[in-house]
């Protein structure tokens, strides 16, 4: 599904990860307070977005231009060492997010809401907006994700863009595991796999040992006076023997 305004996060179990924010210029003004509403083309640009994401909580921010549904947009991608540290930054004034360890599980929770004091630009409000998370571990529960659990590890919370611009919040949350999916799979399947490899190696060793014994046995037979093989090899078809 294509969203007019999307904030997407790839999380790791240690709280680090990466993000991608995509929106048309007028949404950058209305939600993130970038540029001037009366002069979007000149003021919502690469330089303005680079300055917005210039924060010690954000690593390697990159700005690209593109289009969705025939409308121009700007995308910012970057990394973070602690998703909790994004709260209160200039880049995410619209997002409160928390990731907490609770026993053997982790709790992801937060809310998206348009800040009260932002730009006043206007645009096409007919699209859909989304907050999306790529979860690194098992998802035990989620708080009304719009499409449920997608592709095994993606959770999305969506609403129509008009409601979002009007100030309607998106409340999100999930309970997830503390172990990466690949690590969990290895823990569950690793021991049986290793045992299987050990059994195959042992069988190959036995077969190899039997083969060496047979070769040594044949060698000793030839040295003990057996002549069948030598007679065959020394046979002269031109000798006239019948």
What do these coordinates show?
The chain folds into 2 domains: 5-184, no CATH class; 188-226. The strands form 2 sheets. Strands 3-4-2-1-7-10-9 form a 7-stranded mixed sheet. Strands 5-6-11-8 form a 4-stranded antiparallel sheet. The chain has 242 residues and is an alpha+beta fold. It has helices at 25-32, 40-43, 46-52, 161-165, 181-223, 228-233; strands at 5-11, 17-23, 59-68, 71-80, 95-102, 105-112, 128-134, 137-142, 149-150, 154-160, 170-180.
Question: What are the SSEs and their pairings?
Answer:
Blueprint: E1 5-11, E2 17-23, H1 25-32, H2 40-43, H3 46-52, E3 59-68, E4 71-80, E5 95-102, E6 105-112, E7 128-134, E8 137-142, E9 149-150, E10 154-160, H4 161-165, E11 170-180, H5 181-223, H6 228-233
Parallel strand pairs: 1-7
Antiparallel strand pairs: 1-2, 2-4, 3-4, 5-6, 6-11, 7-10, 8-11, 9-10
Sheet of most strands: 7 strands, mixed
- Percentage of residues assigned to helices: 25-40%
SSE string, helix = H, strand = E? EEHHHEEEEEEEEHEHH
Which descriptor suits the 3D outline?
Answer: elongated
Q: Could you say which structural class the secondary elements and strand pairing correspond to?
A: alpha+beta
Strand content: 25-35%
Our count of domains comes out at: 2
| Radius of gyration, in angstroms, nearest whole number | 33 Å
For the structure shown, list the relevant keywords:
about 240 residues, alpha+beta, four-stranded antiparallel beta sheet, 6 helices
